[in-house]
Amino acid sequence: MDHYDVVIIGTGPAGLGAAFGLLEGAKPPSILLLDRHSYSSGGLRNDCKMNFSWPIGFPVGVWDEATALPYLRRVEAFLKPDILEKRNVSVYAKRAERLNSSLIEIRQAHLGTDGGLELIKRLMAELSGRGVDFGLDEQVLKIEAAPKGNRGWIATSAKREIACRDLVIAPGRGGFAFLQEVMSALGIAYTDNVVDIGIRVEAREERYAIVKDYYDPKFLFPLKTRTFCTNSRAAHVVQEKYEDGDGKPWYSVNGHAWSESRPANGLANFALLRTITLTQPLASGQAYARMLGAQASLLGGGAPIVQRVGDFRLGKRSKAAGLNGDLYDFEPTLKSATPGDLALACPGKILEALWKAMKTLDTIVPGILHPSTLMYYPEIKLYANRPSFMDGNFQALPRLWLIGDGAGTSRGITAAWASGLRAAEGIRSST
What is the CATH number of domain 2-84+109-191+384-430? Predict the structure, then answer.
């Protein structure tokens, strides 16, 4: 059996933040980072967009402004981002305000997917150089408390057993189901009744001209609807596979962009999401998302659905033959998406809210409702599990710490890193 002071499951920004936070002490502990993938996973790989403004990315149930800002400053000082310039924000903000909507101004940085991969390599090399071990391609199968009389935890992977004093579980959204299994097995109370359901919109940049002034504009609309994760310059839409505890896959779409060192393709994409809170009866947001994902996959023949705005307005499905020529003047970047009819897959109440937001957005940024604009479905964001914590450092059981997007302590790179720093402080103070 291998022994470490601290084992961190998950090598995304939360796990990396925890590792660097632990190294700040006078006597750094021995640390092992584990990941089921053969590479460092998490948000740094996916377009690497970082927000440095409160409250973006910080769930207000576990953060307040006074607590978050010092951590946010530490994250920025460590990562040293180049903050993007914004222009003409007041013009768009005034238009939004007249329509009972709002545009949030945020300090942002963008590395692109390729830039994010370079950052990951640098961070992992630095950790390795400071004595931190990595176990990549090593999926954790079981977590249990150390035998009576010993303190700490034992993590069993497909390759070995590992004993540790402190165990940090840092799942991103992809580790949502894994964390639920762990919490259920260990008797940690939690809820997961909130989920974002929506579409990924793709258009020519000139038809969403705001991206020339503000890289990732955050619009808030009525009916709990918002834009999220805008990409431009060298942007593309991707398909993401999720698995539940029983191994059954379901799919969501997402957006990426390369750094500005890559040739631009003249396209932009963004998510348009509606937040759904399931209350009476209290139900699992993940189960609801899985059901919608499976339904979309059924109608898409095992792939997400894509529909042109022009077809949607006419009440007819899109077909492959109609995706090019005339008004349909660019090819979808997600080639695997199946032309179809969103109205057959997306619940009517959600689709109505999304379409109202699209019409409002077209008044604020004229052009987005051009007939060629694409709508991919589904884009699903599992808001997060909401564990019951023992303290303010995200300790769920003695010496067991839960952080990151999947654990409900963050919604984005910078807040995930901050949650790792916060857990590291708890570990250092309890040693």
Answer: 3.50.50.60
